[in-house]
Amino acid sequence: MPLSFRPLALADGPALTRALRESSQKASDYTFVNLWAWQEDRRYEVAFADGLIWLRQTDPQERLWAPLGSWQRDDWEELLTKHFPHGASFHRVPEKDALILADRLGPQVSLDEERDQWEYLYLVEELVSLRGNRFHKKKNLLRQFLRSYDWRYAELEPKCRRALLDLQEEWCRWKNCDDSPGLAAEKEAITRILRDWEHFPGLLGGALFVDDVMVAYTLAEEVGDTVVIHFEKGLGDYKGVYQAINQIFLEKSAGRFTYVNREQDMGEEGLKKAKMSYNPVDFLKKHRVLWRP
User: Fold this and answer.
1) What pTM does this model have?
2) What is the DSSP letter of 67?
3) ∠ CA 176-177-180 to the nearest 5 degrees?
4) Rounded to whole angstroms, how far apart are CA atoms 39 and 32?
C-alpha cells in the first residue's frame, strides 16, 4: 500500500516537533525550522502512517528521508514491505536509527556513510571560554573585534526582522547571491523563517551592532540539550565579526545548553575547514540506508 504523501504545511510543525522528540537522534535536518526554511527549494512532502511521519524530498530529485518518530519497534519488515514492496533507499538517516534497521533486518539492509551530511557537534563551554592553544587564533580575532568597535549585543525577536533582512541584503551584495543558486536559495530560506517567526517556539538568536548598525546575527533553535545554529552571517568589513557573534551569542543566550550543533559542511572544503577549526567533540553521523525485500 503506497504512502499518501502531501506537501509539507506550516500547520504540520507541532506534529513534526513531537515526532522528532521521539527519535533516537535529533539531527538538525529534521527540525521543523529547517524543513520549513528549505521547503521552497526542496519541496518536502509528508505522509502520516503507522505512528510515524514519513518524509520525502521532491526537488531537485525525489528522495526519501528517515521517517520521524520512535524507531524502537519490531515490525520494520512488515512496514517496509507494505509501503515499499520493491525496496527503498532512505537518505540522511541518523546513525542510531540506521543501526536499528541494520539490527532488525540484517542482510536486507546496507548502510553507506553520507560524510557530507555529518553534523558538527561542539561543547558550549569550550566555544565560550576558548581556552588553550586549540582556540588561540579564534580568541585573538575575538579580542580584535571587542577592542576595535563600539559594539553591543541584543537577543533577537520578531521586531528585528527589518534589520535582519537589511543585513542579509548587504551580505548578499558582498557575496553576489544572485549569481549563486545555493546562496539565493539560502536567502529565501532565511526570509521564510523570519516571515513565519511566530510559528517556531524554539527559535532564538542574537545580533551584534556597531554604532547601532547590525553587523552580524545568529538564528538558532533549541533541541533538547543542544542549540542548533541554522544561519549565521556577518559583514566582512568588521574583522573578527564571526568569532565575536559565535562566542557572544553562546555566552549571552545559549549558556544553558551542553552542545552546539553547527550542521553539515555539504562537502565544501572551505566550510569543512572552517567547521573543523572550532574543534568538534563529535559528529552526528548519517547514512544512506538501502532496504531490499
Assistant:
1) 0.95
2) P
3) 100
4) 10
